[in-house]
Design brief:
422 residues, mainly alpha, 73% helix, globular, Arsenical_pump_ArsB
């Protein structure tokens, strides 16, 4: 059974990378095979899917549709156009803007909020939005590790180590993940400036867009506040972030129906939910849950512990770079959830403070997703947006930005974490 699962898993990811237009079908087909063959018991299918992520994506997509309809993204695009001299700085500015938001909001939600701004700018300049959206996605993934509420992996770490929001800034009296990530962001931003050095199309100021409704913007700001607040409340449901996003979306469409009497806006918002992306993620959760069920991830973890022995530096190095490699192909949420207790066991065996190992795991797992277009939910969401706009994103289009960005960011975080916490 384990061999069958491994073969199906490898085949699935080869197909996902080579047939980008059919990713949802491939993921759902493999998920179905896993259940039919009994690799993942049918009784565990529902709990294997991360409904918090699914609900968050669905609710945020709907909210963002209302946000776009209000013309606020267009106004932000006008503002950025007015403040940047050329397209290179516009792309970098948007990625930095996305990074700031992503430190406090889920990566996927960030991409869904910022991508419309990039799309609007690119449409006005009549250029491809593909590089901009990819840059926004990878920057969002990077900053997701900065705070407790920035990414699901951070939420998992915080729960495992009983960390609060401020522990991500200072932990055990030392600069924590937030500052490590910011230095990594500076280094990776320099890389983006170099990658887009030839994008010198002038960006000219135009007449400012008039926002028709500020209520969707208020809802998005409220979402940020509620997501942060929820992180401080103990014993909340596992789907609390998703519930917040869906409830705010429902408030938005109810207001549009009852107050504004705008049925078309509601129809557009429901249509804009990317059901293909939701199916892709659901399928991937089941597939990875299947290989976890048969013990593949645990076997690999045990193998590198056996190789490293009790050498902390070797163990740390293996954890970081193995996590980068695995997260390039496996959703980092399930991988992180699986590896956290494994890291605890490793720490107990080799002795000392295991913080450096835990932080190494988060850095590798969170940033490693930027290596491939299917390595992180934010990447999948960004590519889904481009696909709906009629743009085909090839794997090489993504990796040309994602690979150098990832290597710079991970290397910086790898070095800093070791010197601060080892």
């Amino acid at each position: 059974m384990k061999t069958t699962a491994i073969v199906l898993f490898i085949l699935t990811y080869v197909l996902l990378l080579s047939l980008p237009k059919h990713r949802a079908k491939i993921a759902m087909a493999t998920a179905t095979i896993f259940v039919v063959l009994g690799i993942l018991p049918f009784s565990k299918v529902f709990t294997t899917v991360d409904w918090n992520v699914i609900l968050m994506i669905a609710g945020t997509m709907g909210l963002v549709s209302l946000f776009i309809d209000s013309k606020m993204p267009s106004l932000l695009a006008d503002f950025i156009i007015a403040k940047t001299p050329n397209m290179k700085w516009a792309i970098v500015s948007l990625s930095l803007f996305a990074g700031i938001i992503s430190a406090f909001v889920d990566n996927v939600a960030t991409v869904l909020m910022v991508a419309p701004v990039a799309l609007t700018i690119c449409k006005k300049l009549k250029i491809s939005p593909v590089p901009s959206i990819i840059s926004i996605a990878v920057a969002s993934n990077l900053q997701g590790a900065a705070t407790l509420v920035g990414d699901t992996t951070s939420i998992l770490l915080g729960g495992h180590l009983d960390m609060n929001f401020f522990d991500f800034f200072v932990y055990h009296g030392k600069p924590s993940l937030f500052f490590i990530v910011q230095i990594g962001a500076i280094a990776s931003t320099m890389m983006l400036l170099w990658l887009f050095r030839k994008e010198k199309q002038p960006v000219t100021s135009i007449e400012r867009t008039v926002v028709s409704d500020f209520f969707p913007t208020v809802l998005l700001i409220l979402m940020i506040i509620l997501l942060i607040t929820a992180s401080f409340i103990p014993n909340t449901p596992k789907t609390i972030n998703g519930i917040i996003c869906v409830v705010l979306f429902v408030i938005g469409i109810v207001r549009a129906l009852l107050v504004k009497k705008d049925n078309q806006t509601v129809v557009n918002a429901i249509k804009e939910i990317d059901y293909v992306t939701l199916l892709l993620l659901s399928g991937l959760f089941i597939v990875v849950g299947g290989i976890t069920e048969v013990g593949v991830i645990e076997d690999i973890a045990a193998l590198f512990v056996k190789i490293a022995g009790d050498n902390l530096f070797v163990v740390y190095t293996l954890i970081v770079w193995f996590s980068v490699l695995v997260s390039a192909f496996i959703d980092n949420i399930i991988y992180t959830a699986t590896m956290l207790p494994v890291i605890g066991g490793i720490g107990a065996l080799i002795g000392g403070d295991p913080t450096v190992l835990y932080f190494g795991l988060i850095i590798g797992a969170t940033l490693g997703g930027n290596l491939t277009p299917i390595g992180a939910s934010a990447n999948i969401a960004g590519i889904g947006i481009l696909t709906k706009q009629g743009y085909e994103v090839k794997t090489k289009d993504f990796t040309s930005i994602g690979v150098p960005f990832t290597l710079i960011a991970v290397t910086t975080g790898y070095i800093l974490t070791w010197f601060i916490f080892a």
